[in-house]
Design a protein that fits this description.
Layout: E1 2-6, H1 11-22, E2 26-31, H2 36-41, E3 43-46, H3 52-55, E4 65-68, H4 75-80, H5 82-102, E5 107-113, H6 136-155, E6 158-164, E7 166-168, H7 180-189, E8 194-197, E9 203-204, E10 206-208, H8 209-221, E11 228-231, E12 237-238, H9 239-250, E13 256-259, E14 268-269, H10 274-280, H11 288-306
Parallel strand pairs: 1-2, 1-4, 2-3, 4-5, 5-6, 6-11, 7-10, 8-13, 9-14
Antiparallel strand pairs: 9-12
């Protein structure tokens, strides 16, 4: 099976690449830059997703599946520049889908956002629940979902959508305003206080990046009628819970400073994952404490190599 991974050098892209490589998938990686390890091990194509001239050469009729992971924004930056969010993600994705139709690509698997497309909901969200995103990032993700459905109706383009909750793990960019666990652990290693937006009571569904990658690999093999899958743990933890686990894992007291809660932060976001368990046979394997412990050990090892921590 020939597979193209768009955004392969990113946090999720690197993990998905590793999982699929273990299954001997025929991979082509596309991104604006790559790690040295990726260059040595895989077929890498450097290019800009917004440039059809860069993208079209890898979308040949030999390609079975394209995994679309590219996003130029996170929730905080999307709200600052919604026009750029639309141009950089929605418009470029429509151009990409046109290339898929032109070159007879069979299937697109899209990384949506279970953390933002549902909006505020007081119980674990199911795929059939109404979507009411309250930030530009979620609105654009939801719009892409609808266009995938449109291209299927108009052109027969097959698609799957994975709505991941809140991934964490080694390799996440801690300098971006997204991904609290990695950011918290790095602040501890730097002996700096943790910044908390709000009072720490917001609840999120934290899932280890390796479990998310395995969900993508499982959905690639799925040939049933379902199109949209939540990818989470089905269990919510507050920011206070996370801090407590981090203190237990690291043996360090965590100093915190508090700021006003962000308007795009819903009080609760937890995903019901019954559908993907029943249809695909996937379920998360890594508990939050285990995942935080593993991530901390890896980050600590990197810090010691650099002379701190």
């Amino acid at each position: 099976m020939n597979t193209v991974i768009l955004g392969a050098s990113g946090f999720l892209g690197q993990s998905i690449t590793s999982i699929l490589a273990e299954e001997n998938a025929d991979l082509t990686l596309f991104d604006m830059h790559f790690t040295e390890t990726q260059k040595e091990k895989y077929r890498c194509v450097v290019g800009d997703f917004s440039s059809p001239a860069d993208l079209e050469p890898i979308l040949t009729n030999e390609v079975d599946t394209v995994i679309h992971l590219i996003s130029t924004t996170v929730p905080a930056t999307g709200d600052k520049y919604p026009g750029a969010d639309v141009r950089g993600n929605l418009i470029t994705t429509l151009d990409f889908l046109d290339l898929c139709v032109k070159n007879r690509i069979r299937r697109v698997i899209f990384a949506s956002s279970g953390g933002t497309v549902y909006g505020s909901i007081s119980r674990p969200a199911e795929e059939s629940d109404p979507c009411n995103p309250i930030c530009s990032y979620g609105i654009v993700k939801r719009a892409i979902e609808e266009y995938l459905a449109l291209y299927h109706r108009l052109h027969g383009l097959e698609y799957s959508i994975l709505r991941a909750s809140n991934p964490y793990g080694t390799g996440q960019a801690v300098n971006k305003p997204q991904g609290v666990i990695g950011a918290f652990l790095c602040r501890i290693l730097e002996e700096k206080p943790i910044e908390i937006w709000g009072d720490g009571s917001v609840v999120r569904d934290f899932i280890h990046i390796d479990d998310v990658a395995k969900a993508f690999a499982a959905v690639m093999k799925y040939r049933g009628p379902e199109r949209i899958f939540n990818v989470g743990t089905g269990v919510g933890h507050s920011i206070k819970d996370v801090i407590g686990i981090i203190e237990n894992v690291t043996g360090r007291e965590v100093p915190c400073t508090y700021r006003q809660q962000k308007v795009q932060d819903v009080p609760m976001n937890v995903l019901d994952v019954s559908k993907i368990k029943d249809a695909v046979g996937w379920m998360p394997e890594i508990g939050l404490r285990e995942g935080i412990s593993h991530t901390y050990k890896q980050l600590l090892g990197q810090a010691l190599e650099l002379g701190y921590g």
